[in-house]
Each structure stands twice: as C-alpha cells, then as structure tokens.
GAF domain-containing protein (Streptomyces xinghaiensis), 892 residues
Amino acid sequence: MRSPGTETFPRRPVITARATATFEPVGRSVASARAFVRDTLQGWGYSDIVDDAVVLTSELVTNAVVHAGTAADVLCLRTDDGVRVEVADRYPERDVPLQPNAAQAASPDREGGRGLMLCGAIAASWGVEYSPTHKQVWFELSLPERPAGTRSAGPALPTDALPVADARVRVAVVQIDRDSAVSSWNEDAEALFGHETEKVLGRPLTDFAAWPHTPGTGTGIAEALQLSRWEGSYGIRAADGRVVPVYASHLRVRDADGAPSTVCLLVRDHERAVLQTTLRAPASPDGTTPSADRQGSAADPFEVFIGSPAPDDLDGLLQRTVERARDMLDGDAAYLLLATDDETELEVRASTGLPSARQRFARVPVEAGTGRYGSARMPAVHEDLTVVPGAVPLLAGTGMRSVVTVPLKVEGRLTGSLGVAAEAPGRYSNEEALRLQFAADRIALAVERARLTELERLRRGSLSFLVEASDLLAGTLDRDQTLALMAQMTVPTLATWCAVYTVADQSTEPELSYVLHEDEDRIDGLKTLLGKVPPPDPVPTPGARVWTAPSDAAHSAALRSSLRNLGLGDDSGAAHGPGPSLATASAVGGETVVLPLVARNRVIGMLTLGKPSDEHFRQEILELAEDLSRRAALALDNARLYSERTAISQSLQRSLLPPELPDVPGVEVEVIYRAAGEGNEVGGDFYDLFPIRDGAYGFAIGDVCGTGPEAAAVTGLARHALRLLAREGFGGPAVLERLNDAILDEGARSRFLTLLYGELWPQPDGGALLKVVCAGHPQPLRLRQDGSVEPAAEPQPLLGVMEDLELYEEEVTLAPGDVLLCVTDGVTERREGTRMLGDEGLADVLRTCTGLTAGAVAARVLRAVERFAAEPASDDMAILAMRVPEPPTEPA
C-alpha cells in the first residue's frame, strides 16, 4: 500500500551506493541518526544537501523512536542525481497525517505532521509506503546543477531547448561621432531594428535607446559613449515600436584627423556571449600597448571583473573583487562592504592593503561623515581625507589619503559598497568613480547571488545547529551540565571564548558561573581576567550588545606586561596575585558581546561571547547566538526549578523520617530505606522507632498510597500521631483506630495507609516481647534459630478506608537468635517481567540468614531484591530487621 507525497509513482533513479543503520527506540537515537546521515553524505561528497537531509532525518527518526515507540531503520541511497533517504518504523498501524487540517497546520504546538511539512517544503519529492510489518517514509534531495569544469555557467541544454535565432547571428555596427550622432549604420543594424540607414544617420543614438540608464545606476548612455571602453545592456526601439534588448560593446576611437568617435557593436541580449569576452587593454597615447605588468591596472573595468568564472564561495569572490579593483585603479588598498538587511549598516567582508584581521566584519553606518560624499548610497571621491576627518571611518589610522567609493545596487536597492584608496592625495577624480561604478554594477548581481546563497546555506546550517542544541539542552535537568553545554555549543562554533553569568535574583550581583576558551590553556587566565572586571548589567533588552570591559582590561594587562618586561612597571600589584598573561590578554582583546538569558519574563543570566584581538562578529552569527540564548535560558531556568524542587522534596522527605534510631538494650535493630526515582517526589514508604516509656519502645513501618504533597501529608500525620498517641498510654489497636479517624478527617486529601505497628519490651532473660498490629501491610516474618520462617501476625484492614475499625494486637516472643523482618510492598512486589518476588520469595531469602546480625540480614535482603531484576526499582523500599542476639558463650 502506498501513500504518496508530491509524486504518486516516484521515479527510481540509478543507485550507486548505499548505507544503512538501525536505531533503538530511545531518545539518544535521534542524535545518532543525524550523525550517521551527516557522515554518510559528507563521505559521498554531497555537502551541499547535508543540512537539509539531517533536518528531515531528525524529524522522521523522532516520529519513529519517540512517537511510534519502535526501532528506526535508516537507509541512505546515493543516486545519479542526488540522494534518497528512507526511514522505516515497526508500527504500520499508526497512520501518517499527510494533509493536516487548517487548524492543525496553524498550531505550532501540535505533535504530528511537522516532519512531513518539512519534507513537503524542502525535499524534491517524498512519500510514505506501508507493509504489514513496517511503515516507511522517504524523501529525495537533488544536487544543484553544476556543469563540469565551471561553477558559474548554465546547465547543458538539449538542442530543442536552445533559444531560437536567425539563420546567422547579426552584429549591428553603429558609429557615433563626437556629437553623439549616428554616422554609420550597417545592414545587420537595419535587419535587427528595422530602421533604414538614411533615416538614422545624423540622429543621436539616445533617440533610439529605450532604456537610457543602466539599471541600478544614474549613468546614462550618453555618458557611457564618452568612455574609452564600455560594455552593458540596454534596449533599442525598433521601427515597429517594439523594444529589442541588446548587449553592447563600445570602443572610443579617433580618425586620421584626430576627431573622436565611438564604435558600438550590438547583438541580441541572449547572444551576449558573442561580445562578452575578456578585452584587450587600450592603447597608450603614443599608440603602444601597455606593458604586461600594467595591463591589470590600465585595462577597462570590465576586463577586471569578467573572464574566469566567479569562485563558488562568497568570500573568494569578494576577495578577488577587491584585489582587481585595487589593480584597476592602481590603488594601495581596496575594501568591499555588504549591507545589512535593513540597509542601515555596512559590514566589512573583504579588504586588501588594510589590516584585514582588524577590519573583518566590522560595521560602519551607511550615513557617515559630512559633505557631498557622506552617503554610501552614491559614488564618492575624497581627494584628501585629512581635510574631511572621519569621512571614511574604515580608513582611520591606515595612512590612506585619497579614496573613491561606489555603491553596489541591485534593482535600486543598496547591497554594498566598493572602495579603492591610495596613500597619496588627489589620486582619484570623477572619471575613476565612473569607471569603478560601471565595474560595481557588473559585479553587484553576482555578489548578491553569492550572498543569498551563503545566507541560505547558513540558515539551513543554523537550523541543523539549533536542532542539535535543543536536543542536548533537553537531555539534562542538571544546572551545572546545562551551563557546560551552553558554553560548549558556542565555542568554537560561534565564538573563540564564552562566559556565562547567572543572576539569582534582582537584588544580587551577577555571578561568573562558567568560562570556556577554545584553547584550554587559557581558561584559567580568562577566568582571572573576567574576575577582575565588573560583570555586565543584567539588561532584559533582546539582542546582542557590545561589552568593552574585557577588551579594555585585556589591553591594560598587555600594556602592564610590556612595561614590566622593559623594567618600567610597578610590581606593587603582584601582592594581589598574578594577573592575566599577555597571551590571555591578546586572546580576549577582540569584540565581546553580551546576550541576555531571559526566561519567564526574568533575566536569569547573561551569555558573553568573545573574539580574539581585533576580530568582529558577523550579524548572522549574532542572530544564531540570540536564538540559542533563548533556548539555553529556558533550559537553564528549567534546571534551576528542577534543582529547587528536588532540594525541597528531599528536605521534606528527610523530615518525614526519624533523624536517628535509639539504642534498644538487648535488641539489634537495622533499617534500610531506598527511595525510587530521582528524589523529586515525597511520600511513599516510611518507618519509625521511638521510646514510649521506660523499657518500652514503639516501632512502625508503613506505606501511603501514591506520592506527592497529599501522600506526604498523610505520612507526616501518621508518624507524629503514632508517637503522640503511644506516649499518651494508648495500646496498639487504640493508636491505629484513632489514626484511622484522623486520616478520614482529611476528607478528599486523605490517602489509605498500610501500617505495621508494634511495641517492643526487651526481657530480663535475654528475649523480647512484641505486640503487633498489621493493618493491611505485608506480614512480618519471624526467623527462628533452626532456620524456619513463619508469619508473625495476621493481616487486618488497612487505614483510611472505613470507619469504626476493630483491630487487635498479637503477641510475639523473640528468643535469643530470632529475627523479626518487616518490609514494605516495594520489596515483595519487585518484578522481572511476569515474575514477582512475593512473600514466598522473601521467606526463601530470610531462611538463608540464620546466624546473621540484624544489619547483615537487612543487607542480604536488599541485595537479593536488587538482583531479582535488572531494571532499577520503581517503588520505595523500607526494610526493618530486629534480632535478639545469643548470649555470649562461656569459656571452657
């Protein structure tokens, strides 16, 4: 049976490799499955689709091992055009919601269907297949098209998909005189545009230009015709009124008389490859060609940026761009900045000739400085930066005097800025700005495409990172482990070092709780440095804010260290202990940001991230860190609440048990108490042993139904009421009957209680007399010296169920060597599959305890109970053993 996704009958591509693994139905299997898919696809060289595959696998394996509760089989298939991943579980009866209704789709909290919604959004195709024993969900991801030998060319197309052209490719040759009028119009121009030559000659070319401005710039074709060399796209109005998109190459020449003119070669825009080639450098004024070492700087701007395919990664493309821009204008330095999404700031992404380590990812505002060229949205030329200080903040302190900057625009939107600088003043004019602007217009679209590709890759990588982080944070409720996970997830993925501050309440100062550095040898020095710096203010404002205190302290420490090395420092501070080392100071001297940890509308701490000297954070990294901080804050607050609840529960549990047991003359007494679970519930089993009056002791062991506050209330009531009533002189039946009335008076909060209560009188002859009442509790067992075991009391009604109980007590005499064993039902009801220890099993264990002390008897019973089943106990256990020791043997 098949339940399809986007393809009813998906094509089965050729399988070239496969990998499979099975994961058990436990929570950690989800992370293991992600690691398996990631390692497999990276081994196949499919890094482009790893993040998508990991995210989808995570959702599908979660559905199998968590929601379906069965093992998951994961199969990865490498195909000729991508990858196919199949996840199967053993629960075919649980249908997959292929089309959730609108109400379900709108709810972010619903449990089912989210993995399939992701499949529909990300996968090329997906589906569900059922069999009598399995349910299988599969998805396919396609590889991006990348023809052999290039990273930027389009895919190879069949002949019938190629664009339609005339019988031959026509190249219109149009010559423009010094007045921008057409002086020559060839036959191909007539054929392409329908204008006869005699009707065109003498008219300005701008009369026929349908798009007089290059998109994204303010430069018109009239200005472009004045340049020595130009390439670009525009339109020509044909004789029938339609617009013909063309790709043009302009070359400025002069005739024998020295009169300038421009030759324009035009082809249809889809045939631009005919003209779009690497151009030769223009001739020098003396008619010679520039030398080879100058062609890179004297060539036309488009020769610089067109030629070899663009690098596949954004950083490589940007670095090549700034290097060629510098060479094009014969500058000493160049830089390229990309705009943030709101276009209010520019982020340094590449530079050459500048201290790139200091400048990388630094941010500058779009509106900077004063004067005509203060805006990054327009071309700007600064002949001397010393005249206009601060006009280009990026170049402050670099020794650059003149600079030309132009915007990168795509469809009129600012996407970046490109600048070239020189150490000499007056190096650049508007002509260089125009040349650089043409080059920027040509490269802007390629840069924006690469930037968007990088953002998409980062977004999907971030999604995978947050899935992993959420998994890890949800796997623990321990505060210290949560702090460690927060730091380990950020270092070195997001930052070089990390410090976590916690805030107990609004009246206390933040406390430095955890410090981590990617170099373990620097952790102690970093901790020392941060310990000398006042902590950041716990401000609840969302987002990252810069914190300068660590870098200032690091720079001061580095200065003091340098002075000490020169013998000029003051060593008086040595008495306060060693300060941070010079290496630590340099490792902390970069940008430091603080993100608030806000949970349940309260600041519970701060996550501090730092970079080494002169480095800055990328905006995408800060946004990812902000997402992580929200998840980490909730996990940390959950750990805090859990720790507080556990501490309260354990404190309350201790208050319900006697602080210590009294010494009973002539009787050995041993108690073992084991609470089940993690100690976050109170109530359950209890015991007590207390003196009533001279020579008499009361003992009790009981079990309250359930756990939690209501059970704890009954436990506390029972233990204190037993002591009070017994010391008032009431006998065993009267004590339990009054306790029963008190429990019933609790009304809806009451819980029934099984209780074994007795009174113990050590006898002068070495024995012990006991009077016991067994109210619904497991029967006490008596072990005689001969190894026989028998019940020591008859069962009677339990407490808290009915009124007017009529209970009676039974007398038991323990001879020297006899043992009385009392337990709660956590001992007798210990299970392993369908087997249960039971009363008979406990009696068998007790028969092996002849001659043992009370402590040894209790320990052997506990060991037998623990070994009965492999799983940890699910119920509390209390064991009370009392033994009358034999008299010492007289020496012969």
Summary: The domain at 310-456 is CATH 3.30.450.40 (Beta-Lactamase).
